[in-house]
Specification:
homodimer; alpha+beta; Jelly Rolls; Arc Repressor Mutant, subunit A; 4-stranded antiparallel sheet; DNA-binding
DNA sequence: CGCTCTGTTGAAGAGGCTCAATATGGGTGG
DNA sequence: CCACCCATATTGAGCCTCTTCAACAGAGCG
């Protein structure tokens, strides 16, 4: 697989094959693979390709044919959709250990969403044929992916339900509470995205986000600090909104 | 199908084990199993339990512990969620061949949604332990389920995007167009649910659905007929809304 | 045959969007 | 290291879509 003779110009976006011994960067860090034996991980790693993208680069777009699984090994990826009317909606953000590409991989040949590097990012790609082979050979991988999928499905449905049943204020409060739960350092956390993206994720506009956060601040629930940091002063109050 | 010796009181909701030879009602009709050999399907069927529910009965509810996959063999099931604020949202409707229960099965022990029989319904249930065994034994089943999951995930994300980016009128028009695509007999189709449920599915209210359908009718795009039948007169016009 | 749930229609009000003007800040190049 | 610049964020005002509440009509089911 890995050609040792690799030259820079053979590498789109600094694309490189792995050589054994450079395993650590991706396969071993994703839950779907890291329960395997070392030798099995090496085997998978041997079929993987590493590709780097610079900030802002598009990794795939809707309509692209693709047949690879993308595992984030470094950086951050924005997954978003464009509606028929052309509006953008942020679906989720991938951090190292997350993967994407599953739709094109298991169902259809083309993507419906867009993947964009939010910062300089490295992914490893596993081709559909290789992955299928491994799934048949090591069925426990499938169980891991099924677990991941069912969690994602649940989250997606929960998100839909929220958007249709709760008002913006409530959705925002819930989002803040969840971030506190996942990311809190003390009683502060850092927004993982711009407020523009947050608006798109929550199904509203940047203006409304801005206003609602100010209201929360006026009401003493939170305090906004520089560099996207938010201190939560009254979590319970927030959740009663 | 019921064992021949079945007595009413041995069967909760007319619950019965399968005997070989009565295979046809469920395992063989779902895409996730029907690619298997006859003998393999028989093997799975032997572990399945058939349960019937009367119209309106709840099959599972949020918070229930469950460890079974439910495959619809007859009838129709409404899957819905309740938001934190208590509002109901219709997630999807299952018809024979569809399955549910995956979240409790692969991720957590409890359901987040509700499943209710819309008409008299029969499901077959496969226990988690049995299913896991089959997945490891026949890895191709996992691939089928992965395909199904990734399709559902895509649909769910598409639904979220629509709800947040399109207005009600557009969502309704798209829904009608999709139903035409899937269910049309001539240029008519039958709504698969009440307008109340449709409202909940599309994230709006029955009043709005009623009004928008009247508008579409006034504009000559559709014609509403008795028994939930809708004739589409101008599909293109509808999609330009 | 009546009762209850679903659907329809009207009117009023609210929540959030749009548009526009201005402020801010972090990234970049000099 | 500083100044500049452009995307992001903020704030205000008006408006529009959709929800809400209420009253009534109709349909399906026991």
């Amino acid at each position: 697989m890995p050609s040792k003779e690799m030259h820079v110009h053979e590498c789109n976006h600094h694309e490189c094959n792995y050589t054994s011994g450079t395993r650590n960067s991706c396969v071993s860090l994703v839950p779907i693979f890291n329960h395997l034996e070392e030798t099995q991980m090496d085997e998978i790693m041997a079929t993987a390709r590493s590709v780097s993208y610079k900030k802002g680069e598009i990794i795939y777009r809707a309509g692209d044919k693709s047949d690879s699984l993308y595992i984030v090994s470094k950086g951050k990826i924005r997954i978003y959709r464009l509606s028929d009317s052309g509006k953008e909606q942020l679906v989720r953000i991938l951090i190292p250990g997350d993967f994407t590409g599953e739709y094109a991989l298991f169902s259809k040949a083309t993507h419906e969403s867009y993947a964009e590097a939010m910062v300089d990012t490295t992914v490893c790609m596993i081709k559909q044929a290789d992955l299928h082979e491994f799934l048949l050979k090591y069925p426990s991988i499938s169980l891991k992916i099924l677990t991941e999928f069912s969690t994602r499905l649940e989250q997606s449905e929960r998100q839909t339900t929220r958007v249709v049943t709760e008002k913006v204020e409530t959705r925002l409060a819930m989002f803040l509470a969840e971030e506190m739960d996942r990311e809190a350092q003390g009683n502060e956390f850092v927004l993982p995205m711009s407020k523009k993206d947050l608006a798109s994720y929550l199904g509203t506009t940047p203006e409304t986000i801005s206003r609602k956060l100010s209201e929360f601040e006026d009401q003493g629930y939170i305090k906004q600090k520089p560099r996207k940091r938010i201190e939560v002063l009254d979590l319970d109050g927030l959740l009663l909104v």
